[in-house]
What does this fold into?
Amino acid sequence: MDTIDNTFLPPHCTYRDCSQFHTPVGNTWFLKCGTHSTKAHGIVQRFRCRHCHRTFSRQTFDLDFCAKKRINWQDICSVVKNSISDRAFARYIQVSPSTVGHKLSRLSKWSQLYHHQQIIDHNLQENVCADGIETFVTSQFYPGHVNLLVGSESQFSYGWDFCFLRRKGRMTNAQKAKRAQIEMTWKIPRGALKKSFQRGVAKPLAKLGSQTILEKVIINTDEHPLYSKALTGDKSLASLFSEGICIHQTVNSKDHRDTNNPLFSVNYMDREIRKDLANHVRETTRHSQEPNMMMDRMTVYLVQHNTEKRFRIKAPKGMGTKHWIVAGIKPETVINPRKGKFRERPWFTEDFEESFKILWKREIPRPHGTPKRIQANFWMA
Ligand SMILES: [Zn+2]
It folds into this structure.
């Protein structure tokens, strides 16, 4: 296999401590430095940085960097959005489930950067609504909320974050005893929901609210008392509230749930997630085992939903539009799916929202302190 790409020019040095990492000037900062042959990627061009004299290759910039096997990225996306479990797909293409997990994790990072680039300079053009979508990881003794910020007109997801909650609701005596036993070794940190709502909803809204073209932005939530505290408790958002740029409105969750309900967009996203993601289907037997992996899947799904899914499935042919178009996202930040997608490796940036930093570093706490899943060092390079 010969995959050498003579047209490729490295965009920057791959070492963060090198001056050519952030601001490479022209094409004179590197030299071509031979090739090497690999089983998975064919012949790969190497380069040498003229400033730090270290070498790197075309593969260093590839989403398949260090991968031993290539799997079509579009197929991985299909797994996520068509209610297929990782294991079912792994059996189908005859690889191990962990291979699918690793690929999903990469695609999640790619999606995080893609989404970040779309909303960093976005001028918000619509009201928004937010809610927590209930789900569980490992077993129903570990429920949690995916807190989601969605555009009221476009159903474009702007921000999301996950936190565990204490199991509530009706339980048998045996279940109560089991919960007590679990809580002897692992308890939900205090204020977990409030902090998560701030990371997933308040912080992205504060950024979007400061760049809005509207006179005022209404954020609709249900009457959960913590949501109000979380929103007003966020410093950057509190100033937008006091200036009247952001207004918080609550809606009774018992109100009829139709398109006129101000919470329609989050109710719609709840339905989409339950329908499309195998690990959130009600009474599922395909639930997630690990919170970071669960959010990787969620991230890939939400970003695909934002950019790929039609705004209304029943729209007449030619009238179809997408959620990102309705939201007014700048077209130059959205990749045309027909022109090479899923090729370039994403790089960590300190500009990420806190929720994405946590997800990138796989720092969502796991029940009972189960060890952090090992992640290759190059993701923080
Ligand atoms: Zn360098």
